[in-house]
Amino acid sequence: MKPMADFDTLLYLQTIANHIQDAVYVINKQGDELFFNNKIERFEPSQRQHMLDELRSVFLTGKPSFDKYTKYITVDRREVHMLSTIIPIEKHGEIVAVCSINKNITEMTNLLNKIYKLQEQLHNYCQSSANLQNGTTYTFDCLIGRSPLMSAVINKAKKAACSPAPILLTGETGTGKEIFAQSIHNYGPANSQPFVALNCAAIPETLLESMIFGTTKGAFTGAENKPGLLEQAGRGTLFLDEINSMSLVLQAKMLRILEEKKFRRLGSNQEEPMNCRIISSSNVDCHNLLAENKMREDFFYRVAVVNLHIPPLRERQQDILLLARYFISKFNKAYGKQITRLSTDLEETLQNYSWPGNVRELCHVLENAVNFFDDNEATLTAAYLPDYFHKQSLIPMHTVEAATAQNQTLPQTLEGIERQLIIRALAASKGNITKAALALGIHRQNLQVRLKKLGITKNVQFVVK
Ligand SMILES: Nc1ncnc2c1ncn2[C@@H]1O[C@H](COP(=O)(O)OP(=O)(O)OP(=O)(O)O)[C@@H](O)[C@H]1O
């Protein structure tokens, strides 16, 4: 190809550069302007000076910088948001010029901020209007998530809300089962009636029974005439959270009540009608419980007339950043911070992580990051994530190639993966073995055996870099 004359090259370059949206600026070692396009003319003197300083520092270090975020206040008090990339240009191994490419992201930032504000207003509105003295806080409008999987389950849940059939919500810990239970209640015809929730895993077996059915005076030592949750729920909803922890004996009693629609307070002969709807949840796979004879089959089919499965966060990648931005805007307000951007590395790390603790883990990780955020910055980066994120990125364990490249045997590879998953689950549960075991879908004792075998201590640090 015939080489272009210098003048022609410059003309072509200038024409192209004048027709792109970014401002381009090139200087030589002496600080003389070698090249710039027409977008630079819109820069104010202070902004131009700042850019020159940045270019000079790249001359000194020789290191390029990519997508560096800067916020300017113009003389007429407007905020300008910029992303700048500065690259040294070398000739025969020596830096002869430095080029700066500046993207004005003001419009996009303003739009994003508007979206966050609207999202927050909507959420606050939902929280205040949903608290209709019925014991709930959430409606479907408060659920953040636009992925196809989430939209499908919301649509199913809305349909189920309109029928009185018992619903079983399944899904890993932190996926939002309780939010779904409340939203279903508020979407249904009995939304003016009470919503009563009971965590079956948190209450001892003997107490659980009296809490659900209520007691009569003298039923046992110290027993009083007290309505149970079945009565308190009236014509509303009784939400039995973590139903997987319910004993077989109590399952049998609940089954009878669900079939007969009648119950008796403990120590009473008088039958009361059961008018409420039962929504229950389980964070372990009920089919495993059935196989292990820990759940009665007849009880399962009775409570799971409608089974809604909430997908884990790792299966709805599109929701991760949406939720992240929502939580950042929430914690900005709570902690008086001004985070306006998430860095590309943070976005990628959040999207590539497997989130064993799901939305709850994402929420905690970001609350932690916002807390430690340096007030002089505007961009939240991956450096603010807990330590275990950085460790996992060193070991690309999801790829078969990585294990092959390290000449690992199958048992070595599997042990590495097992170790990583356990460490992450423990870090997410802040060392709580029961919660970590639940997240991993194994029994507590099973996790303890594995911890011993792998020599992992339960106190995995939740440290911010
Ligand atoms: N789609 C969502 N939008 C906004 N917040 C969410 C969403 N899903 C979950 N959360 C938040 O994540 C946290 C965990 O949700 P929730 O308690 O409903 O999970 P869960 O599935 O019931 O967990 P567990 O099985 O451990 O009881 C809550 O703070 C909740 O507000």
UniProtKB/TrEMBL annotation:
The keyword ATP-binding applies. Residues 143-371 form the Sigma-54 factor interaction domain. InterPro entries: AAA+_ATPase, AAA_lid_NorR, Homeodomain-like_sf, HTH_Fis, P-loop_NTPase, PAS-like_dom_sf, Sigma_54_int, Sigma_54_int_dom_ATP-bd_1. It comes from the Bacteria. Keywords: ATP-binding, Nucleotide-binding, Transcription, Transcription regulation. This is Arginine utilization regulatory protein RocR. It comes from Sporomusa acidovorans (strain ATCC 49682 / DSM 3132 / Mol). The gene is rocR_7.
